[in-house]
Amino acid sequence: MKTVILCGGMGTRIRDANENLPKPLLPIGGKPILWHIMKGYAHHGFKDFVLCLGYKGWSIKEFFLNYQRLSSDLLVTLGPTGGTELLDPALNEDWRVILADTGEATIAGGRLAAVRKYVDKDDLIMLTYGDGVANVDIKRLVAFHRGHGKVARPFRRAVRGRRHRRRVQREAAGRRRIDQRWLLRLRRAPHLELRQGRRRHDPGGGADARAGA
């Protein structure tokens, strides 16, 4: 089962934290937000990822292309016959990561449509945002979803603490969803039409093509 992560937003609300990085790469404890999200899924056995890239997507590509070097001690030999040797090349992360360009201004439903070719053979996928870190039992969530036979299931987790409650209330007033994850069965949702760059709502099917903002 693949986990699709939306990493293409411009992060305008947090732009003052770092102008050079996309929001999923902002560090928490020395590691990007995105890494913590993926680590959480991998902890529960879900190690197959599709990242929907957009704004500064090349930064995310660079992070994964250089991941082993950035995570290891290096021996660098200078000169015309020099080279680089990884001193501790073994990594704990045995993930498969598809890095897919889905456009800078594409809405979430359009991003999912753009990577459909990578997930079409999966009977069930997981979809989440590239900035929502949470302590969730993913295996239990998947088992619950499979046991109820639904097409899609949104999951929301509230943030605790007085300061965070105020922020949640402000964001709720702005109709913004917080740390929302989805489980989707694409082939069982004929009324869910995902088109790049636009939203379409089928009143008869009762589903909204938006997977999030």
CATH class: Alpha Beta
Task: Return Rg in Å.
Answer: 19 Å
Q: Which architecture per CATH? A: Alpha-Beta Complex
Count of domain modules: 1
Strand segment count: 12
Structural class: alpha/beta
Termini gap: 23 Å
Helical content band: 25-40%
Shape: globular
Say what the CATH topology is. Spore Coat Polysaccharide Biosynthesis Protein SpsA, Chain A
How are the elements arranged and paired?
Elements: E1 2-7, E2 27-28, E3 31-32, H1 33-43, E4 48-53, H2 57-65, H3 67-70, E5 74-77, E6 83-86, E7 96-101, H4 108-114, H5 116-119, E8 125-129, H6 138-148, E9 152-156, H7 162-173, E10 180-184, E11 201-202, E12 207-208
Parallel strand pairs: 1-4, 1-8, 4-7
Antiparallel strand pairs: 2-3, 5-6, 8-10, 9-10, 11-12
